[in-house]
Amino acid sequence: MESIFSPPPSSLYPVYGPTLDAKRVIVVGGGIAGLAAGLGLGLTGHQVTILERSNDFTEAGAGIQLAPNAMRILERFGVLKQVLKEANTLSRVSLRRYADNKELASFPLMPHAKSRYGAHACVIHRADLQRILVTAAQAAGCRIMTSQRVVQVDAFFAARVKTADGTWYQGDLVLACDGLWSGIRRQMEAALGSKYETVPTGDAAYRMLIPSQRLGAKPQLQQLMGQDTGVRWLGPQGHLMAYPVRKGAMYNLVLLHPVSTGASPHRGVKARALSFCRGWSPLVQQLLSTLADDDITEWRLYNNKPPLRWVLNRVALAGDASHCMLPYLAQGSAVALEDVGALVAALTCTADLDLALAAYEEARHERSARIQADAHHLQQCLHMQDGDEQALRDEAIQRAARDRDAGCECPDLWLDRAWQDFAWGFDAMEHMVDGWHDLVAKLGRGSSE
């Protein structure tokens, strides 16, 4: 398989040198973006403190996908070996009809992704990735403080935040990785004369994990779980994504469906999931029947608009706080890691913090907004009612799989060759370093020092 890079990007900047001017960085939020920021900034010489609102890093979440654009950042940050030790590598993705389990098409993942994009692709339990990042960030000198709920940022957006107990934390930079419900973004938007709003999508996700031993003597399910394959069943008003995690010890399911009533997140919804999948294939019914009621958590899906500004003075946004990604393209963690990689790289290019932050904003806003919009578009494409439009979609999927090298467009953008080149082939750190002088010129700055 020919690579679209020469040489592969993983060999271009295997290790970044130290920052030109060490900063005190306060990271708000200890999710994937926040922990990766603590790691990357710590490795390059900054003094980092992460303020996390929860009491500890519990065994939370389910499976997540790490595309090559995410994995090359993790490789640069020195945790590739640990991630691959915990992750599952999928050889392909199978797209299937919901009613009869008929395979529409099969698309390659690994080793195709490594050959073409110079980086791995894998799936991993979120808690395992979080644990890896916590350990690595602390080893890089990052201080992680739990039970620290940030309630306010400095009124003039200096690098200062206040926690719920009244303590103010002072630094040179505040990086807000506090997610979709970001209080810091809300305060930034208000300062710009706007109102931060989250937008309901009308969809929700049932997230489920099935222990392998629970499948018992059900050969079809054992066979499904034993394969290194991701499966996407396409149905009316929803779809089901499934793949093994924890080296096959668990099977991860995400069922996207129209939102129901009740709080979010909401547990104990097995009957609702089974009701939604009435009329789906017996294999899907068998999978869902193995679940206990408390194995299923329902999460409503929201969107947010691209921010007016990513940076105000010494406060910057990253991850879901700036671009909450719907799950249809599996790019939420990847684009958050791109943000972090770009910022870390910018701070190795100049000692001027304001210039580094301006370059970060310029490099990230357009790309992240496009991926966010593409994910929103895919919601409608994947959830078509049976009929002529759905039949045309399925034919186009089959054609794209059959004539992959001919450049046929796949309606499921996640598996479209051109879209993968755009998303998976992107190197956020290389883009920042190689494009530094162009970024500086675009910003109207004559010097990078």
Automatic annotation (TrEMBL):
Superkingdom assignment: Eukaryota
Chain ranges of the FAD-binding domain: 24-371
Alphabetical UniProt keywords: FAD, Flavoprotein, Monooxygenase, Oxidoreductase
SUPFAM superfamilies xrefs: FAD-linked reductases, C-terminal domain, FAD/NAD(P)-binding domain
Keyword Coiled coil carried by entry: no
GO molecular function terms listed in the Swiss-Prot or TrEMBL record: FAD binding; monooxygenase activity
One Pfam family it belongs to: FAD_binding_3
Annotated PANTHER family: HYDROXYLASE, PUTATIVE (AFU_ORTHOLOGUE AFUA_2G04330)-RELATED, MONOOXYGENASE
Similarity comment text for this entry: Belongs to the paxM FAD-dependent monooxygenase family.
Name of the featured protein: FAD-binding domain-containing protein
Organism the protein comes from: Ophiocordyceps australis
Phylogenetic classification of the source organism: Eukaryota, Fungi, Dikarya, Ascomycota, Pezizomycotina
